[in-house]
Amino acid sequence: MGDDELGSAAHTAIDSSNVGFKLLKKCGWKEGTGLGASEQGMLEPIPTLVKKNKRGIGADKTKKKVEVQKDLLDAEMQNNHDMQSKKKKKQVSKRIRKMREEEERMKEKEFERAFFREFWPDNV
After folding, report:
1. What is the average pLDDT across 88-109?
2. Separation CA 22–CA 19 (nearest Å)
3. What's the pTM value of the predicted model, to 2 decimals?
4. How many angstroms separate the CA atoms of 87 and 20, rounded?
5. Cβ distance 11 to 50 under 8 Å?
6. Has residue 4 got a pLDDT over 60?
7. What band does 6 get if pLDDT is binned at 50, 70 and 90?
8. How far is 113 from 121, CA to CA, in rounded Å?
9. Is the Cβ–Cβ distance between 63 and 55 less than 8 Å?
10. Taking a C-beta distance cutoff of 8 angstroms, is the pair 45, 13 a contact?
């Protein structure tokens, strides 16, 4: 990340008017010593950086328009493929349902034919 993207970092120790400084003093911390049980911790606060762009925290550089368009096209193609896949699944399930319905109708017809043959023979 370049200097044009980030503000200057504060690498100096906090002064006695700082709220954090006052809280640390209340807890028994002594100025000039590190944090921790054996005072082995950092002496200065972690430097902060101010972002001056709208990119994500981990972004190093902007994508070129061609890359963005390619990514959008890939996403659109994937979405289109997913929709076609869903459509095919829907068509297949509809076909299966129709086949089952037809099979049920055939079973009912066969039952009716057997029933009529049993009770109304043709030779009567």
Report:
1. 92
2. 5
3. 0.33
4. 60
5. no
6. no
7. very low
8. 11
9. no
10. yes
